[in-house]
Amino acid sequence: MKRYANYHLACSNVAGDWLFGKVRLKTNKSKPLLINNAIESEKFQFNPNTRRDIRAVLGIKDKFVIGHVGRFSEQKNHEFLIDIFKDIIIRKSNSVLLLIGKGDMEERIRKKVISLGLEGSVLFLGERSDIHTIMQAMDVFVLPSLYEGLPVVAIEAQASGLKCFLSDSIARDSDITGDVEFITLNGSTEDWVKKLLHYYKGYERQDTLNKIIDKGYDIKNSAAWLEKLYITISREEAN
Question: What are the C-alpha distances in Å from 29 to residues 9, 15, 32, 182, 235?
C-alpha cells in the first residue's frame, strides 16, 4: 500500500509512521496527510441537567464517579484499573467506577471485583449507544491501556469536559484540550491514585466544544475537509 498509493492519510503522526514508514509522497511531503478521529462533538457537550438526570437514573447522585470505556481485553488493562479503584475507594468511600463495554475478559474482571468486595461500587454497563450521555455522569475518565494509538473515547471524554488520565503508552496527540494527564504504567497504583484525587479536588468541569472544533475534531468539519480533498485529487488525476 505504501509503495503504490499516491496519497497517504493517517489519524496521527504515530499511526502514519507505523502504517507507511518513512515514505516520500508524490506531493514531496515526508509525512502522511492527517485526518483526525473526529466525533459528533455537539452530542458530547457538557450539560449539567443531563448530568443530574443520568446520575439519578444510575443511582450515583452524590458519588465520585470514575469512568472507563473499552472492550474487556488484555490491551485495555482492566486488572490494573480495578487495582487503582481499590486504592481510591479506601480514601474516598463514596467512589463509583463505571465500566462501559463487553469482551472476553469481562467474567474474569467481574470475579476480581467480587473477590475485592467492590461489587457495590463497580457498575458494569455493557455496550451502550448512549456513551455521550453516560460521560456526563462521570467526574474523571481513566484509560490505562497497555498500548493504544489515538483512542476516540479519549477525544469523546475531553469533548464532555472531563479531566482524563491516560497511560503514557497512549499517543500524546490524544491531548486535545490540555486536560489530559499521562501516567506511567511502570510505577504503582499510587501514582494514579494521587493524581486522580489531587486533580479532582480543584477541577471545574469545562465546556470544551470550541476547543474540540478548533483542533479539527468535529465530524462535520472533517467531512467537509475530506470531501474537498477528494475533489482536489479527482481533478488532479483527470489532468
Answer: 12, 16, 7, 30, 20
Give rounded-to-5 percent helix, strand, coil for the chain.
45, 15, 40
Report d(CA 230, CA 208) in Å as an integer.
Answer: 30
Q: Is residue 54 part of a domain?
A: yes
**Could you tell me where the beta strands, DSSP code E, fall in the chain?**
9-10, 33-34, 64-69, 95-100, 122-126, 140-143, 163-167, 180-183
Give the separation between CA 164 and CA 202, rounded to whole angstroms: 14
Residues 121, 82 share a domain = yes
How far is 152 from 149, CA to CA, in rounded Å? 9
Residue 98: the pLDDT is 99
Res. 27 pLDDT band, cuts 50 70 90: very low
Q: What is the pLDDT of residue 9?
A: 80
Domains in the chain: how many in total?
2
Torsion of CA 92, 98, 102, 105, to 10 degrees: 0
The stretch 134-139 carries a mean pLDDT of 97
Q: What pLDDT sits at residue 28?
A: 45
Q: How far is 199 from 4, CA to CA, in rounded Å? A: 48
Domain residues for 135? 41-213
69: β partners: 100
Structural domain includes residue 160:
yes
CATH number of the domain residue 169 falls in = 3.40.50.2000
* Cα(209)–Cα(8) distance, integer angstroms: 29
To the nearest whole number, what is the mean pLDDT of the chain? 90
Helix (H) or strand (E) holding 235: helix 219-238
